[in-house]
Design a protein that fits this description.
It is a single chain. The chain has 297 residues and is an alpha/beta fold. It contains 8 helices and 10 strands. The chain has helices spanning 111-123, 139-151, 168-173, 191-198, 215-222, 233-244, 247-262, 269-296; strands spanning 9-12, 32-35, 50-53, 69-72, 99-102, 128-132, 159-162, 180-182, 203-206, 229-230. It starts with 8 loop residues before the first strand and ends with a helix.
Length: 297
């Protein structure tokens, strides 16, 4: 079907995820094949020519970690378009304890993540952790997570698990119960980070050593929130504790977040579209030049 439509540049977004269609690309159905956005690593498929990244997720020297050629579309490898029906941001009840939250996929809550979160909770006595993930609707998955959290030193009475919500507005409204969002390591959140920021919730992340562990740093820089990027576990907890102790600052961000984000590179979809298009044109011109060179031999 791809060949029948004579596609010049084919974009694959699934990689090795459940929805990926990499086997369809093995026989090179299009002259130029580009991997972008959906999978945070190299595909390892020789037929895939390019991979769209940025200088934060994949700094110079990362070329050796990918079978594709890297094309960097700084300042960020993606852009975020908020849902039109998102509810307005609101602070949690003033009487509620400081609540850290994570709405990331359960698979991202690694042993490293739990260790980071435990250090953060220890730095904020009386604080709590609010977790939400589709998988946590399974009682056995919730029980296993609580066991792992306990093994990491997080008391059961400091964790609340929320059930799955059907609609996006209902999902986003739950950020009204969260003071600060804590990113997962080494596999950062992406959509969840953008959603938290749009709901006026600061996100603290650790800048790691690979694309999946540097997405948070890329998103926060693009959003103009680089102060929330940590480069060590101790600094991660320190940033979170400092923010948690300044409720006036949290309230100020909640009120101004959307205006700030709308003026940032993260939500500048027009510029992002132009950069993405330029990357595809560059890949196509490169292929054309290769064909011309081969024909002249």
């Amino acid at each position: 079907a791809i060949r029948e439509r004579r596609i010049d540049a084919l974009i694959e977004r699934g990689g090795h995820t459940e929805s990926g269609r990499l086997p369809a690309l093995a026989n090179k159905p299009a002259p130029v094949i580009v991997s972008a956005i959906g999978y945070p690593n190299t595909t390892g498929v020789p037929a895939v020519d390019w991979r769209v990244v940025d200088s934060i997720t994949d700094p110079p020297g990362s070329e050796t970690l990918a079978t594709e050629r890297l094309v960097r579309i700084d300042p960020c490898f993606l852009a975020y378009r908020p849902p039109a029906d998102a509810p307005e941001p609101a602070m949690p009840d003033p009487a509620s304890p400081i609540t850290f939250g994570s709405f990331n996929f359960l698979a991202k809550i690694s042993a490293s993540t739990l260790a980071f979160w435990r250090t953060t909770l220890d730095a904020c006595p009386g604080s709590r952790l609010l977790l939400k993930s589709r998988s946590l609707g399974d009682p056995s998955a919730s029980a296993r997570l609580l066991e792992r959290a306990a093994a990491a030193g997080i008391a059961r009475d400091r964790i609340e698990i929320l059930p799955f919500t059907k609609g996006v507005p209902e999902h986003l409204a739950l950020y009204r119960r969260v003071h600060l969002a804590l990113d997962a390591v080494p596999y950062n959140g992406t959509t969840t980070t953008c959603e938290a920021l749009w709901m006026g919730v600061p996100v603290v992340t650790l800048e790691g050593d690979r694309h999946a562990a540097r997405v948070g740093a890329s998103l926060l820089r693009a959003a103009g929130c680089a102060d929330w990027i940590a480069r060590s576990p101790a600094r991660f907890a320190g940033i979170a504790a400092s923010l948690a102790q300044d409720r006036a600052r949290l309230a100020e961000f909640r009120e101004t977040a959307r205006a700030r984000l709308c003026a940032s590179a993260l939500l500048d979809t027009a510029s992002y579209g132009a950069r993405f298009h330029a990357a595809l044109r560059g890949a196509w011109r490169d292929w054309c030049a290769q064909q011309a060179a081969a024909a002249s031999r």
